[in-house]
């Protein structure tokens, strides 16, 4: 079925010689069993799926779109967590990494369905 990917060029040449294609995370709207859903999927082939500052920004934007349009969210998690060399840029304030979990709580209170699938290796 069709999939509308968001921010395909996020992270392009943002970190000098470090390649972070699509910000290391795929986000977009897809249709599952006829229902439009917001999908957020870590790309483990990009630095082990770790979160760069642009990854966080892209994830938060996807959640914002889901909240604005009351779209169910599916999170496909295959991530090593924060990118350690850049952790100081990932955690610093309320609009960074912790905001992802805050948004999940807000969406839950608004009745927006969410599910997470984790890959453990």
Automatic annotation (TrEMBL):
Catalytic activity: 3-methylbut-2-enoyl-CoA + hydrogencarbonate + ATP = 3-methyl-(2E)-glutaconyl-CoA + ADP + phosphate + H(+)
Every CoA carboxyltransferase N-terminal domain range: 1-121
UniProt-listed Enzyme Commission number(s): 6.4.1.4
InterPro entries on file: AcCoA_carboxyl_beta (IPR034733), ClpP/crotonase-like_dom_sf (IPR029045), COA_CT_N (IPR011762), MCCB/AccD1-like (IPR045190)
GO biological process, one term: L-leucine catabolic process
Entry superkingdom: Eukaryota
GO molecular function, one term: methylcrotonoyl-CoA carboxylase activity
GO CC annotations, alphabetized: methylcrotonoyl-CoA carboxylase complex; mitochondrion
Pathway stated in the Swiss-Prot or TrEMBL entry: Amino-acid degradation; L-leucine degradation; (S)-3-hydroxy-3-methylglutaryl-CoA from 3-isovaleryl-CoA: step 2/3
Classification via Pfam families: Carboxyl_trans
PANTHER family in alphabetical order: ACETYL, PROPIONYL, PYRUVATE, AND GLUTACONYL CARBOXYLASE-RELATED (PTHR22855), METHYLCROTONOYL-COA CARBOXYLASE BETA CHAIN, MITOCHONDRIAL (PTHR22855:SF13)
Family to which this protein belongs: Belongs to the AccD/PCCB family.
Protein name: methylcrotonoyl-CoA carboxylase
